[in-house]
Amino acid sequence: MQGSANLNVMMSAARRAGRSLVKDFREVENLQVSSKRAGDFVSRADIAAEKIIQEALMEARPSYGWVGEESDAIEGKDPTRRWIVDPLDGTTNFLHGLPHWAVSIALEHKGEIVSAVIFDAAKDEMFVAEKGQGAWLNDTRLRVSDRRKMIEALFATGVPFANRGELPSTLQDLARLMPTCSGVRRFGAAALDLAYVAAGRYDGYWERGLNAWDIAAGVLLVREAGGLVDGIDTNTNPLETGQLIAAAEPMFDAFAKVIRAG
Description:
By secondary structure, the protein is of the alpha+beta class. It has 2 domains: 5-141, Fructose-1,6-Bisphosphatase, subunit A, domain 1 (Fructose-1,6-Bisphosphatase, Chain A, domain 1, 2-Layer Sandwich), CATH 3.30.540.10; 150-259, D-Maltodextrin-Binding Protein, domain 2 (3-Layer(aba) Sandwich). It contains 8 helices and 13 strands. The strands form 2 sheets. The protein has an 8-stranded mixed β-sheet, with helices on both faces. A hairpin with a 4-residue loop joins strand 5 and strand 6. Helix 1 runs antiparallel to helix 2 (36-60) and helix 5 runs parallel beside helix 6. The longest helix has 25 residues, at 36-60. 45% of the residues are buried.
């Protein structure tokens, strides 16, 4: 994909952070994952990756604002543009040596996501999208799945952990959805769940209790790949509410009906 100058900056920053994280990931595999040392090490890796991204983006576009998971928000001189960044989505996977995690970077302009990068450094998969320009995985154009039957569909979600408040609702969702479809996956990285919907690997995805940096890039990827994204509560903004449904258009209404029935 021949991207804009902003997208090229984002891809470069994601690759730099990804290289740092891959190096740290190899070290995590040598640590005793149940120890405090491993958790502290991953926290440092996460913060270091965000610093790499922030320095790269803010150097290239010093007037833009910034929202990141590991740092304080920055009000830019240009109030219409801001970066939304998760330097390590899938931290628990990373901590346990599971190679399913990603760097997520989105650019928001006047309240709308216009550029997106999700980089799975462990697999060297770079998902990118720009408003009106489509979605891509490395050099391949992405399209959402064209499946139309729920019983053939594979969905993804996140199951809340550590007694988080969304657990009862999610368990009820699963009880309604599982009998109607071919399966549900819980891989532990919201950004990659959305990227996989864009790539047609999943037919749909839903989750509650998310942050803007978890999903900002993925929302644009799905839409630019021809999919639909809405809040679980109809006609709400997922970046504001932290809950969403994403799916290919032929599947969306039937899928959303099951999730919204709770």
